[in-house]
Amino acid sequence: METELSLPRTRVGSDRVFAWACFAGTWLALVATGASAQVYDAVVYVDSAQLIVDGTPPPDDYGFRGALTALIYLPTAVATKVGLSGDVGVLLQNSALLAALGSFLLPSLLAAAGARSRARTVACCVLVLVVLGRFAPPGLMDIWALAAALGAVLLLARPDRWRVAAAGALLGTAINLRPAYLIPTLVVLIAWAIWVRRHSLLLAVGSLAFLLPQMILELLRPGSLQQWWTGVLTVNEIQLAYSAWVVRYDTMPAAYPPQQFFCMPGMAAAQDGQIGSPVGLLSHLLASLPTSIDLMAQKTTAWLMWTWSTPYYDAAEPAISQLGVMVAILVVLGAYGWVQAARRGELSRSLIVVVAALALGVLAGVVTSTPEARFAMPLVVLGMVGVLLVRFDRMGWRSLGAVAAIVVVVVLLGRHGLSHPAPAGFVSPEICASPTTTKG
């Protein structure tokens, strides 16, 4: 006979079986989309893992890429030794991570908000398939860094000493994999120290984990730490130089040159000299008011205009796709869902702080960078969770109308931000001040 004590265990066991079934189904669906050839950065990441397996020293031009990026695809590199195609190995490995994201990590975030259910688990898997499915074939770092950052969010939802330290290490891992997480991590650290204050030093020390792999590599290969830091600074300088007049950047695998920049001609025409620091950028933006406000509005909406080619870009696709509208809805309605759940008292203080700080940090990163569409992934995935927190029965027509209006504004602003593509290749303010084409 089943007792009251055994019933919860039975239910937990059943839920785990269900989650694993969702994982298997999602993984198979992602694998069925097929592998694709690696290009550009993806080639570097996959080949670096292969070099480690082959016992070959890493290339001298690894530059700004963190040491951990060479370890991510080690399973794929090992599998190639028994005849598996590297492209297929990347697909299998990335699909497993995305399936775990939909079946375990996102439902766990919902559970932290008191909203876990089997229906929501299925919804998470479907959203991962539809929205993130095209991240399975390429060997990029985006989904791996995202998983580390979301893992940190989950740990900080119920903070104790070890969870906070582990969360810091995961944030540091995200930075090493994708330096774009540096600003979001700094915002999380500051917000945590001000509004939560529990083990703040541990969180900060843990986040320095992004330096540990570089120090280990320095012992194995003297000079690599300086090379890495120089590369990071160089990329940062390039990002700053473009950030004052470029709305978005994308990579076109099927074109040569593959660089596609979307410009704001007014800000490009106002560019006077090289911007070499965040202070210089801020000064330039303030001097360019109110045009710079329009630039920020375009940048924070244009990167949400995903297409069915994201994380890459295909010039043949329309500027506004069904996926772009869906992403805009997820981000806007998802933000409403998080706010609604916080007002209902269903979220812990620590979870509210870390989710808000991560989202604001990602947005802050737009100011000092030239964002690609894939850089918006943290906002999109937080939006997925937020949408599943919405209580539509408590929403009201006024709130629904406001959300719909904001979505329309986001889509129109995003479309406007993509209306001035520059000729393919690297650009200058002079080129961006008078783009030769306008995308319809």
From TrEMBL:
This is Dolichyl-phosphate-mannose-protein mannosyltransferase. The chain crosses the membrane at residues 91-112, 119-135, 141-157, 169-195, 319-339, 351-369, 375-392, 399-418. Signal peptide: none annotated. It comes from Nocardioides alpinus. Keywords: Membrane, Transmembrane, Transmembrane helix. It comes from the Bacteria.
